């Protein structure tokens, strides 16, 4: 009797899983599209420039709202990085509240970036209560108010965010501080409501940075000071500030939300822990830059509209390499604002996708066997007059300012490549780096033939090669043109350098593209460490230049060339112009002594080596306690991420994969038994049954090993956990996945409880 009941319950459960999957697939096909009308004026659509910044309280809006003397005082204080006085802060707060409430805002929030890879916010209402005495009686009445004190700072619980031991549970106080450089903006919510967002820093009670923004602002100021000193040595006394600019190309996947809801691994970990790649995925290279699916286009277009309103300058959108993978990219901005806008982009895409019954996946490797996602961080430096210090011009061989900055950057990457590697290390990005779809774990820099020739010629004290004499097998240095040999087509200008998508840090014309940054992570920490390394090297270049010029007012051409030559030679090992995916490069890098850091725990340790400590602490970018806390946060998160994945995988196998296999085995056994009565040979069924039995047993055994390993690792301390997760747990999970994926191929489709790759990706 018990066997019959068990079988009936099992059959019902399998039928429910099958029906849920089929219903999700049908819903995906039948679901009507979501239509959003672009705003109009009269009979025409608003131009993008007219939509841009509608919900941003920028300097122009502030100038219109404040008396001129107050606005001038505010601008002066912000430019001098001085603390705002309370009178000015109250005036700004009042103007911001009136502006925001006129646009429908009822609440405000300090929007900050804890070390979780995302943002945080707590909403407070503008509503407050006042009392007055009337005829001897206290009367309570409501007003809308927003003070300068509320604008300047708020007080979230600091112990509930990652803090690496800086805060304990009973020491909860922390502060968010308004970042006056990044403008306030409005995010619209349901029922016509809106919230005023105040970009903020997040610090502990004792002033330690608990966020990503504080150290980014510090690193930007340190780099600015170093760059300005170098420019002054070259005779530029006009430049007072140099900013780092950033543009983050954001890659992501979009899948149907009904199917997503049937994948516990995607919901909990952001990636598929089991699943067989479909027969066709990206082999034909037909998805990249292909026609954007209409449902996806509707989603991205709506997100772009919302982003434009809050001042995020999204410029491009296109299909990426893998099926259902896409990219949006902005116009470059000052680094801290670009980080704000990148995080806002991720949040808006998430929310808008939900309205379109889609789910956006930012994980670096959500699907095995197809390309993962990155966040290419395009980084450069710009003076306060708008000059790009990484613009080589048409004659880079005589653009000495550019060459000095260039060799400083190469010096920084060479000396601190291990530190830069730590900035992009995570359990999710580990799946992607070096997998013939992303830069390798070996950090190197690519310049292209033209700039390489310039530096080589300076190093060798010879003339730059002349393109006009091809028999000399020379390299072109200036800009060139391509002739298509078609009479109706004009000559095409060719860039100074080609692009090398296998390089983790490639020069791409007037900027460096830091390609190794993960799609899910905040770009802040990689930029912080890059800024820190470059600022130190700029200082070293400036010191060498000052020494070379001696008592002269300005360095001579020979002085400059000698410094360029010195740093070109010392950093030459970091330059690599060929295929970064090849095994030859791994061997060559080893010969050069470049670190090949393959695991995250090993990468995180780069933060604590003496060179890194000296770099970050001496420049005031991180204190000793802040640096140590970040190491502990990173290593703890790595272990937790993998343990969560392992427990999720164990649950998938025991609650889904094995029951599906057992149900199919039962059907086969019943079929074999029924055929005995009619004297039919059941050899085909027996063959399949034997295979299922074999791999079901192997999966059970692998899963039992995984479960035991999880228990063992959970009992270890922090660093030992991370090492064991990287060396043992990932291998055990891969073994379980291998067995599970074999069963997915063998079990009848009607019994498989989870949407397959074919359904998720197509």
List the helices and strands and how they pair.
Blueprint: H1 2-30, E1 40-41, E2 44-45, H2 48-51, E3 56-57, H3 59-65, H4 68-79, H5 86-102, E4 105-111, E5 123-125, E6 127-134, E7 137-144, H6 148-152, E8 153-154, E9 174-178, E10 184-188, E11 194-204, H7 213-233, E12 242-256, H8 257-260, H9 264-269, H10 294-309, E13 314-319, E14 325-330, E15 333-334, H11 335-355, E16 358-361, E17 375-383, H12 400-415, H13 417-423, E18 445-446, H14 449-460, E19 480-482, E20 492-494, E21 505-507, E22 512-514, H15 524-549, H16 557-570, H17 583-592, H18 600-604, H19 610-618, H20 624-676, H21 683-714, H22 718-746, H23 757-761
Parallel strand pairs: 4-11, 18-21
Antiparallel strand pairs: 1-2, 3-10, 4-5, 6-7, 8-9, 9-11, 10-11, 12-14, 12-15, 12-16, 12-17, 13-14, 17-22, 19-20, 21-22
Structural class: alpha+beta
Strand count: 22
Q: Let me know the average pLDDT.
A: 90
Strand proportion: 5-15%
